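Field notebook, page 513. I keep forgetting to write these up properly, so this time I am using the form the group agreed on. The chain and the ligand, 6-O-phosphono-beta-D-fructofuranose, are recorded exactly as supplied. Prediction of the bound pose follows.
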Amino acid sequence: MALTKINPTKLPSWKKLVQQFDKDYDYHISDFFKEENNRIEKFSISWNNFYLDFSKNRLSNNTFKLLANLCEETNLKNNIDQYFNGAIINETESRAVLHTALRSSGNDEVDKTLNKIINISDEINNAKRLGYTGKKITDVVNIGIGGSHLGPEMVTESLAYYSRGIKPHFISNIDSDFTSKLLKGLNPETTLFIIVSKTFTTIETLENANKVRAWFIDNASENVIKDHFIAISNNAEAPKKFGISQDNILSIPDWVGGRFSLWGSVGLIISIVIGSKNFKDFLKGAHEMDIHFKNSPFEKNIPVVLALLSIWYNNFFMCETEAVLPYSQFLSKLPDYLQQASMESNGKSIDRSGERVNYETGSIVWGSTGTNAQHAFFQLMHQGTKIIPSDFIAFKKSLYGDSDQHEILNSNFLAQTNALMMGKSTSGEDIHKNIDGNKPSNSIVINKLDPLNLGSLIAMYENKIFTIGSILNVFSYDQWGVELGKSIAKEILAGKTVDLDNSTKKTMDQLKK
Ligand code: F6P
């Protein structure tokens, strides 16, 4: 079985949403509060350590009911079952999509890899696996790009508080200046390199790995590559040719997409940095969110509600973008991570039946941390001409217990969602100071930034992405769009420029001048 192939715009619920949009458009969010009883109870969800308040949205009761009907009419429940049961839902690559299995137990291949991750990270942290001169490993360098970089970097930074002491570094971009500077500060005797590439053909990663390998041979020796290099890949042969010993190759199953791969072998650096116990908690949190997603009714299902709001704003208000605004500096990489996860997944214009879509698919996802973002782009959010639906994410407790500063941080979080919704009328005074309000936001309040809750948070967004793709009838798990640029770059590098357009040729000449 595969996912259903239904054009959502042909459904009764969608047609009714079009009419409902006209009725609701002139409503101010604050009017909904005046007219609807129990709005907050209806439009909030408490689950485990999470509280989602979605009452500050341009969403009436009727719209919400119609959006829930849209889930029914697109067979979302059945599609969720297909996803978790390992159906070939990535049809264009004939693959199942089972990253959720990496955070649940019962699969031999998954358990075997998890044990390997735990063993390697425990051995490194307990100084049982040492560098070639017998010294403790102090630094780990992850060499990979896209899904083989963004997740591991985001999580190691987000959970820096839980670090066991080993310093993580990331080489992703093909920028020799950056890599040279990083290598200058590293000692080959105490550094472990992890080459992460599902295909082991990605040019940036292979070039960077070769540069690092040459540096290592110059500063240590080729004979000890086996002690300092680990490969994580779905390609069984290429890492061996690189000189990596079989014991140091961890697999990525075919059914794990790059941008959803941090739960398995790609997460090795995470487990090394935060320790295997914390890594297991991280997986547990994600698994718990999966269970919530699978079993909760749509109206009380956090990923589903977030997905429905995203579709509502993108397709009816034509918002185009949505912002992720964590009130925690540790989460500064979360927007970048979600950008790839969402935009590489749902940035499609052909539906699952092979037809060109006549509606909007993936939104542009961006964001930054509060309060920094307040001093950068919030002006446009408050008084600009665009509507930017946003997720505000805050934590009840600070990690180090500085409750005074944490209160300032969270007061800002509260103030911004309030100001966006309510605005301020200057009636008669300076019109430039008038703020209309009526700007939507979700408030996501989480007990504490810990491995368990971060696992749940990331799984929440992954399941939101699935839901959007499911309803909007696109294949979320391929990424053919990024392949074209890669092959043209190879041709340019090989000097094959005949097929290039004149503008690109001219720019190429400029680069050579
Ligand atoms: O950018 C395209 C992409 O294929 C991503 O989907 C993937 O995460 C990244 O390249 C890296 O690929 P690999 O892990 O095979 O090196």
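OBSERVATIONS:
- The mean pLDDT is 97.
- Residues 481-512 form one domain.
FOLLOW-UP: compare against the apo run.
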